[in-house]
Amino acid sequence: MDIVLRVLRFLSGLLLGWCSVCWAAPPNVVIVLADDLGWNDVGYHGSEISTPRLDALAGAGVVLQQFHAQPTCSPTRAALMTGKSPMRLGVYRQFAKNSVAGLPLQELTLADRFKQAGYQTFMTGKWHLGHASRAYQPNARGFDHFYGHVTGGIGYWDHVHGGGLDWQRNGSTVREEGYSTRLLADEAVRLIKDRDAQRPFLLYASFNAPHLPNEAPEETVARFQDLENPYRQMHAAMVWELDAAIGRLVDVLQAEGVLDNTLIWFMSDNGGLNPQAGFDGLRDLSQRLQDWFGKPLPVTMLEFIRVNTLEGGASNEPLRYGKGSVYEGGARVPSLVYWRGRLAAAEVAQMITVQDVLPTLLSAAGLQTSKGFDGADQWPAIQGDAAVEVPDYVTVGQGGEEAFYRWPWKLISGGEAPELYDLSNDPTERHNLAAGRPEVVQTLRRALADAPRGENVHIATYKVFLDPDFFGGEEDRPPWADVTR
């Protein structure tokens, strides 16, 4: 009889455990994407920039120490939305304002998949995956609600990109005053408060901070007067505003009583922009032109290059270079996952990439995954249950260089000679092992050559130079939402 009771207790425990999984409410999912945030721009990495709200999430959450994005924004966003390699999708660099295409329309997005599972799907902030026709924009790619901008960087106060106002709500132009980081937080808070409480929600909070231009409220800039570099000072203020906005999201989740059932994943879209991030020749040319003509430069394209090569205030130390580069400063970025009560504080040293985010979130939410991803379900590694095999990963730099990752090896190809690094022992890429390990170089070169490559969806580079992108400034054309096909 005693044995029977023990067996019954065991079976009832299994049944209760199974039922608790079956009956648990699906988690809400909040993805917070920063724009051009450097490795050394967050307090929990030792930065001089104060980020108390992110530091609190990092202290209680899972810090991803080897999270890799792409070196530029649109490829990262394409991978985030699809779980696939941007190269496979034909997205090799950021979309220019003159681009006519976007993320291929046949692709199911992250929002599509969560919407099919009954989620409310909200997006605030920067899209940058196609804007020329409504078919490419967020409301047609699975999002019930979109508020923000569809092109690249905008003025924080005037919301202008490349001569046109780029600020909209669900396809309609919005003219309003306010600092974009704060406005985006306002909208996200409203969406959470006004949601259907009977259904889970996905919120993609894609902030444009701390992307250029260097603009922030005066009272916030005053917090960082001790920083000598004026560009770093302004960058720090933009990061502080981003951190405060993230804190507001956490606070409203707590106030609404849903923080315990909300998974928050924070990441940057690429490394930070600074003078060390660009090409030496462009940087030197920009400095000479600035010395000769002052600023702004008289030619729009030259001024655009000058601003992007000289005025970035991010720090990626101790990693090499930054935004646009295939070195680690361009792709290894701050990231953490927080789920109060479900994830214990920890650090994960395993390499995880932006291609892994979608399959991982589907797994964490208990939703059906597919085999059509280039990324992997990293939920077991994030929970601390088991290591997950790291899929091969490819990044593409602005100069056409490519980096191929097969952990712990990293091959950089496209320069004068191949470079090979063992990231497990040399994360700052100081020791090129290519000459001593030719067999590894050959193996990785073959694998890189075999990597899937889709048809390039971008316009010719000369068209970008004819009418360059620019962040903020005078309006000289209709708002972008008004001319969308």
What this model shows, in words?
With 485 residues, the chain is α/β, with parallel strands linked by helices. The protein has two domains: 26-274 and 312-392 and 455-483, Alkaline Phosphatase, subunit A, CATH 3.40.720.10; 395-449, 2-Layer Sandwich (Arylsulfatase, C-terminal domain). Helices cover 32% and strands 16% of the residues. The protein has helices spanning 2-23, 52-60, 73-82, 86-89, 110-116, 180-193, 218-221, 230-255, 280-293, 300-310, 328-331, 357-364, 379-383, 438-449, 461-466, and strands spanning 28-34, 62-68, 120-126, 145-149, 160-161, 164-165, 168-169, 172-173, 201-206, 262-268, 335-338, 346-353, 393-396, 402-406, 409-413, 419-422. A ten-stranded mixed beta sheet has the order 8-7-4-3-9-1-10-11-2-12, with helices on both faces. α6 (180-193) packs parallel to α8 (230-255) and α9 (280-293) crosses α10. The model is unreliable at 4-23 (pLDDT under 50).
